Amino acid sequence: MRVLVVGGTGFVGRHLVSRLLEGDHTPLVLSRTPRDLPQGAVHIPGDITREVPALEGVEAAIYLAGIIRERGQTFRQVHVEGVRNLLEGMRRAGVGRLLHMSALGARRGTGSRYYETKAEAEELVRDSGLSYAIFRPSLIFGPGDEFFGRVLRGLICGPLPFVPLIGDGHFPFRPVYVGDVAEAFVRALEGGLEGTYDLVGPKEYTFRELLELTMGALGRRKPFLPIPLPLMDLLVPWVSRLPFAPITQDQYLMLKEGNTAPLPETLKDLLPAPRALEEVLPTYLKC
Description:
287 residues; Rossmann fold; seven-stranded parallel β-sheet; 39% helix
């Protein structure tokens, strides 16, 4: 199957493109630059946030593009306008099937522009009249990830003699392995799965437990320094304005809310043996 992949050069995209190739599909990767695509993938130059793509010969599309903080591009451009442009291109070319990556917790009224633009994109997909499947992953881990491989690793391997702990650290999360995310998308594509699904890993953890697991994987031990939430509530709006802020207002809101859900029964057939965080973290984290 000839499958257009938007966001195919990103963290999840690289894994998904490889999985599509393993399934004898042809991934057509729409991006501004090819960025070392694997053999068999076809690069289509373009910017989905600025133009409606020409999709003749495409049989299905997958939209993975997303940002966690606004640097040069806005949440609205990437999460909403990009989806709108893709849907228009699909209508023009008669492409009838879309798989879309949203986010666990996406909904209106949260105060998080990330969540709210993801929710708006979901509405566009549902109202498109196309065949669709929407996945809402929790934190995604694996080689090249942002959260464990950069944020938490930076806190633990950095020069501070302690690890800052926001509040009591009991916010719940249920991280999912990037290879399982790619597997879910490809199996949904091949099996014609329809609907909207939360996508999570096999186990729930608190934020404090995530820090402890990451320290264990890195072979480091540091004491926690709890930072009371009222103090964080005052500091984050100011700190988030800095160009290289360690945490943005959006990320702080999402962190306090946590990010967890049960794995839907339907997805247990797609992912009968999802990989656990303890199994994977030590294979790619190093100070």
